[in-house]
């Protein structure tokens, strides 16, 4: 009787050999080194996220502040795992995380009445124009004041510009006419620091109206941001524990090498 041919065994069928067979030198698998990189990249990504969350929390009471959002993405796939017998995809092997995008939430926030005649707020879309040493910058922070020349200025002392591009001057009674304050819509908005932005004016776009005696509240939800901060800290600590575990494993493996005869 003819025996049926023995089925050919593939790498996936074969039992895995022990890491260190008796008498053999200990080996350090690539997975250990890869694990260090994965844990370290995750910790670096969480550190960037924590910096962003801390900055948001510090500006939870800043008028007109816009919060940021950081998203993470895995590195390009390092290896596709395929079953050699069937050709079916088994999965992928990741190689860590990076910061994929940092985006600012520019959604207009609620307005808070202050009763101060020089406090202004944009109800809707648009930004105030401010003349700075670096050129025209834009802001949603309308907590303005007056300088010695009777001009409307921001907290840094830079003049607020009107629709004609000139500094806005106060009325004789110390108030300001909101119709004279210039508000522009922007595209390609980017943070420039100190609550200011850069961008490309879109003169044809519709803008909101200027209200006096009110300011826009901060775009930071302090409670949610604190929860996200705690979650980020836990993820950072998990990366630390992973590195500690791998480091201990490598230390033990190195010790075994020194104890081998010959």
From TrEMBL:
Region spans: Disordered: 1-28
User: What range(s) does the Flagellar basal body rod protein N-terminal domain occupy?
Assistant: 36-66
Q: Which UniProt keywords apply?
A: Bacterial flagellum, Cell projection, Cilium, Flagellum
InterPro entries according to UniProt: Flag_bb_rod_N, Flagellar_FlgE/F/G, Flg_bb/hook_C_dom, FlgE/F/G-like, LlgE_F_G-like_D1
Major localisation: other
The superkingdom listed in its UniProt entry is Bacteria
Is Glycoprotein one of the keywords? no
What are the recorded Gene Ontology BP terms?
Answer: bacterial-type flagellum-dependent swarming motility
Cell compartment(s), UniProt: Bacterial flagellum basal body
The Flagellar hook protein FlgE/F/G-like D1 domain is annotated at 121-162
Which segments constitute the Flagellar basal-body/hook protein C-terminal domain? 212-251
| GO CC annotations, alphabetized | bacterial-type flagellum basal body
Q: Which family does it belong to?
A: Belongs to the flagella basal body rod proteins family.
* NCBIfam families with a match to the protein in the record: FlgEFG_subfam
* PANTHER family, alphabetized: FLAGELLAR BASAL-BODY ROD PROTEIN FLGG, FLAGELLAR PROTEIN
Record's protein name: Flagellar hook-basal body protein
């Amino acid at each position: 009787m003819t025996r049926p041919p023995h089925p050919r065994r593939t790498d996936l069928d074969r039992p895995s050999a022990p890491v260190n067979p008796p008498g053999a030198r200990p080996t350090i698998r690539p997975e250990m080194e890869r694990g260090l990189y994965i844990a370290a990249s995750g910790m670096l990504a969480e550190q960037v996220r924590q910096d962003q969350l801390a900055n948001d929390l510090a500006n939870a009471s800043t008028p007109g502040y816009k919060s940021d959002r950081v998203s993470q993405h895995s590195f390009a796939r390092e290896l596709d795992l395929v079953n050699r017998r069937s050709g079916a995809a088994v999965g992928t092997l990741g190689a860590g995380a990076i910061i994929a995008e940092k985006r600012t939430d520019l959604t207009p926030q609620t307005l808070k009445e202050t009763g101060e005649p020089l406090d202004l707020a944009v109800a809707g879309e648009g930004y105030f124009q401010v003349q700075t040493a670096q050129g025209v910058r834009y802001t949603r922070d309308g907590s303005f004041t007056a300088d010695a020349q009777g001009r409307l200025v921001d907290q840094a002392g830079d003049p607020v510009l009107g629709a004609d591009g000139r500094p806005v001057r106060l009325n004789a009674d110390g108030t300001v006419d909101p119709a004279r304050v210039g508000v522009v819509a922007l595209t390609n908005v980017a943070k420039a620091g100190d609550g200011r932005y850069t961008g490309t004016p879109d003169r044809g776009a519709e803008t909101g109206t200027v209200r006096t005696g009110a300011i826009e509240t901060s775009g930071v939800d302090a409670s949610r941001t604190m929860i996200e901060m705690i979650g980020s800290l836990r993820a950072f600590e998990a990366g630390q524990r992973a590195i500690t575990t791998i480091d201990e494993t490598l230390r033990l493996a190195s010790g075994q090498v020194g104890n081998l005869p010959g």
